Amino acid sequence: MKFDISEAFAKELDSLDNLNFADRFYKANDVIYMDGNSLGLMPKAGEAALLSAVEDYKNLGIDGWTEARQPWFYVAEKLGARMAKIVGALEGEVVVTGSTTVNIHNLLATFYKPSSKRTKLLMDELNFPSDIYAAQGHLRLLGRPADDLVLLKSQDGVTLDEDDIIAAFNDDVALVLLPSVLYRSGQLLDIERLTAKAHEKGIIIGFDCCHSAGSIPHKFHEWDVDFAVWCCYKYLNGGPGSSAAMFINRRHHGTQPGLPGWFGSDKSRQFDMALEFEPAGSAGAWQTGTPHIFSMAPIGGSLDVFEEFGMGNVREKSLKMTSYLMFLIDSLLVEQHGFSIATPRELQRRGGHVALAHGTDAIRINACLKAHSVIPDFRFPNIIRLAPIALYNTYHEVWRVVDIIREIMVSKKYLSMDEKRGPVA
Fold first, then answer.
1. Rg (Cα) of the chain, in Å, rounded?
2. Which residues of 100-137 are buried (b: 16+ CB within 10 A; e: fewer)?
3. How far is CA 305 from CA 25, 37, 87, in A?
4. Distance between CA 86 and CA 80 in Å, rounded?
5. CA distance 344 to 355
6. Residues near 276 by Cβ (< 8 Å), separated by ≥ 6?
């Protein structure tokens, strides 16, 4: 659709929007929250689910494992079954457990099996650092040389060329681990194409979907992805430090998990306390330790909202909001104030946030936005990430953010801010 730079147009877009669930979330009236790609706002249903779990603990004690309203013994698998609809998986292919990095360690230990021919672990230099740290640590534990980790180079420093990725699918590659959406630029990779090309070469491939799960519909089973991991505190609104999730294609079920633990046991035999591990016949086998009940409960409440809103609607509205944001940036900030957009323009190549770049002043502009009650985030060296969330942001908020940035630049208020970022950017 054609956009307009006027405030009246933004308000008109909101008047026509019948998919704003802002009243389902806790939002401060005087703050414009544009950081849902880093930590989603608290859904009221998430709060209710957490308080319900607390009440069950208070009233039931240990009997909560089987008698709670959401029995704790099965909650990881039950949440996984609901989460499967968001990522296009079959029931039993998703489990909610652990943290993203621990789950990566588990899946690397499971699927990275270097042989005399295949030794390389292929990732990329733009990947989220924790994923790379996990891979480096895993190679050290195996006694493998550091150069078994191959980091694909970016041509422009902000995006990846998928043809370059596919060209790196050599006969010596044992496993590929890539992001679905690059955390800085917001570029969305073609998971279906990359998976097909990897499998043509006999390579196992997995994806870190922290910056896409809950923002972009996936079809992991249909695309035959081997495995995927994601956190639940960004677009999925599970709260800080909430449990993560992982997908394991059912054709890998029965494989011994790399980091086995008792909660990955066949549920019917778990309390037999056998000394031989009998894995569950599902993704639940990749659980290592006892589930973190209070860190999982809000996820269930958030999924209530997603099930009502619909992932198709999430993606459609997200693309419209980011397109509108890009239009306003192009119209009011690029030529006038030296900004650029690092996010790909094509709808099929971008995730849920817009990466706004500005020379060497991004840190101070980001800080000044926060001083003006706009919550973005900064990513080194010069990216301000802005994420209008379909579930709870408005088009008028998008307009106001760009107008505030324009005012900050005209008045040069950002020059009074500290040039050093805080410990949490």
1. 22
2. bbbbbbbbbbbbbebeeebbbbbbbebbbeebbebbee
3. 10, 17, 16
4. 10
5. 9
6. none
Q: Is there a contact between 250 and 92 (Cβ–Cβ < 8 Å)?
A: yes
Residues written for the chain: 425
For the chain, give percent helix, strand, coil, nearest 5: 45, 15, 40
Question: Residue 395 in contact with residue 355, Cβ under 8 Å?
Answer: no
Query: Which tokens belong to 60?
Result: 């039931």
- Of 281, 233, 270, 242, the C-alpha closest to 90 is 281
**Sign of CA pseudo-dihedral 45, 48, 53, 54:** positive
Positions of E strands within 53-172: 94-96, 120-124, 149-152
* CA dihedral angle for residue 74, residue 39, residue 180, residue 163, rounded to 10 degrees: -170
**Residues 285, 273: Cα–Cα separation, whole Å:** 16
The residues that are catalytic are: 128, 208, 233-234, 385
From first to last of its 425 residues, what are the pLDDT tens digits of the chain?
799 999 999 999 999 999 999 999 999 989 999 999 999 999 999 999 999 999 999 999 999 999 999 999 999 999 999 999 999 999 999 999 999 999 999 999 999 999 999 999 999 999 999 999 999 999 999 999 999 999 999 999 999 999 999 999 999 999 999 999 999 999 999 999 999 999 999 999 999 999 999 999 999 999 999 999 999 999 999 999 999 999 999 999 999 999 999 999 999 999 999 999 999 999 999 999 999 999 999 999 999 999 999 999 999 999 999 999 999 999 999 999 999 999 999 999 999 999 999 998 999 999 999 999 999 999 989 999 999 999 999 999 999 999 999 999 999 999 999 888 777 76
Bridge partner residues of 247 (DSSP): 94, 228
Residue with tokens 């801010």: 417
Tokens of 125: 């230099």
Least Cα distance to 309 among 174, 379, 215, 242 occurs for 215
Q: Where are the beta strands (DSSP E) in 85-244?
A: 94-96, 120-124, 149-152, 173-179, 204-208, 227-230
